[in-house]
Design a protein that fits this description.
It is a single chain. The protein has about 300 residues and is an alpha+beta fold. About 25% of the residues lie in helices and about 20% in strands. A hairpin with a 6-residue loop joins strand 3 and strand 4 (about 65-70). The protein starts with a strand and ends with a helix.
């Protein structure tokens, strides 16, 4: 049996136990998830109220829309939970998932994230903007039609503050960006997935999720609004490659942009976290995460 290994996150005080042997352990419980597509989908073009459209971009496979979230967790008129939420409808085609779309369509989606990030950053007191996607029931998706969301608020979450603090401390100690150094190291490691002149993709050393993957711009940029044309194209190519491979495993996943509009030293990147396993007693009781798919094996799968 392959031996387990405890690994620490690059910067944060978090630990993962990589346990390749546990993938073969016996299981007598099987979870079944039944997914059905709504016949009366609120994200199909004929169901969208034009008054709720905040922004739109022409794209090769149909317009990409930003619409008001009609069930927001935060709102600009709520002082106790201040912020804004939007839904990004990635395609008018009800039957397609994001991985089915062309690189050109995905590039336009990334440009929508950039445009909405810029627009929301101009709102008074907004400190943090999160672009994210939930796909599949285990990832928290409530509607099947391909969509993602943007969440903006006046507070920077504690985990984001901790990461920014750790990055600053690393920079003071080493006179370089932590993530620039991580990219250089991982592009020479067995965890490398993809690389070109503009972006780098890899499975993180202490992956908390099976088949977790990160995509970075090689240029040190703090948020998605700073990407140039070649970076948008490369980012779309890497994202398409990874999501297409994940689709073959039929995994639910979350992805989200790590960016800060208030800290220009942060290095922008995207995390993709598949959700095929459920955290149980060890994870919930101790905070130690058990991952039975090593990042090296995951990267090999993505590279094939």
């Amino acid at each position: 049996m392959l031996k387990s290994e405890i690994r620490k996150d690059y910067l944060l005080n978090k630990y993962v136990i990589i346990t390749p042997g546990r993938a073969k352990r016996p299981r007598d419980i099987k979870e079944q998830t039944i997914i059905s597509r709504l016949a009366d989908c609120p994200f199909c073009p004929e169901k969208i109220n034009p008054k709720n459209i905040l922004d739109q971009i022409d794209a090769p496979e149909g317009k990409i829309l930003s619409v008001k979230n009609i069930f927001p967790a935060v709102a600009l008129d709520n002082k106790k939970a201040y912020g804004a939420q939007e839904v990004i409808i990635e395609t008018p085609d009800h039957k397609k998932e994001l991985h089915d779309l062309s690189e050109a369509q995905i590039e336009r989606l990334l440009r929508m994230y950039a445009g909405r990030t810029e627009a929301l950053s101009k709102i008074k007191n907004i400190e943090y903007i999160l672009c994210f996607k939930n796909q599949g029931s285990k990832a928290g998706a409530s509607i099947i039609h391909a969509h993602s969301q943007i969440f903006a608020t006046d507070i920077t979450p504690p985990e984001i503050r901790e990461e920014l603090k750790s990055s600053r401390e690393y920079q003071l100690d080493h006179k370089t960006c932590a993530y620039c150094d991580i990219i250089r190291k991982e592009m020479k490691s067995p965890r490398k997935i993809f690389e070109d002149k503009a972006v780098a993709a890899f499975t993180p050393y202490a992956s908390r999720y099976h088949y977790e993957a990160w995509i970075f711009t090689k240029r040190h940029l703090d948020n998605i609004t700073k990407l140039n044309d070649s970076e948008f194209k490369s980012f779309a190519k890497a994202l398409k490659k990874i999501l297409t491979k994940l689709s073959r495993l039929n995994l639910s996943f979350n992805y989200f942009l790590h960016q800060s509009i208030s800290d220009h030293d942060q290095h922008f990147y995207l995390k993709i976290q598949p959700r095929d396993s459920v955290w149980a007693g060890v994870e919930l009781g101790s905070g130690l995460i058990i991952n039975s798919v090593s990042p090296e094996e995951a990267a090999k799968f993505f590279r094939k």
